Amino acid sequence: MSRKFIRHALYFLPPKGSGLEEFGVSWLGWSITEGRVVAHPQIANLPIASITKRPRRYGFHGTLKAPFRLADGVRESDLITEATALVSSIPAFEMPALHITSLGSFLAFVPQELSAELQHLASSLVQELDILRAPLSDAELARQRRAGLTPAQEILLKKWGYPYVMDEFRFHLTLSGRLQTEELKSIKSMLQTQTSHLTGSPVQVDDVGLVGEAEDGRFHLIRRLPLAAAKR
Asked: What are the φ/ψ torsions at residue 134 (nearest 5 degrees)?
């Protein structure tokens, strides 16, 4: 029997079998592609399970179109059809090499430079698939506003259902929940050492992961949607 999902999203997922995927799956303790719990690495008594509790259920990913409920009358098959057609019209590309940095009080992999291709991919998914998205409920709006939004972010929230899109979009692959200042510094340094072999080269973006949030709150890969062959 096929799994029913509460929400759907479009994610960048590292290439299957890559070192980046293997690290992220183990670090967070959840394989979004296989839908299973994975053992954390053992690193000098570091409480990885606690550090990664908040992002674990989402899996190791970079958000392109944030989780959303399907509009009334829209089926998952409709989303698959529309998203597949859209993604297949956008050429594959390389994003700049990643590095680990702090974003506020949490840690993440972030491209070392802005990527016009990445920005275009994310904005296209947000805009072109918005017709399939249900409007946010009052409770969902309230949750988004808890962080304290700027006027520009409030406008984006009302228009697109998420405040960190378009000019506010900052691609990242989350590695932790909120950390205290000293904890942030020490874990960042440790992770930079642990992942130095993953941060020197551009990352290939060949597809987009269509994912769904199950009733247990964890996200699962539905399918990878291939981008068009890169232009030579």
From this structure: -75, 145
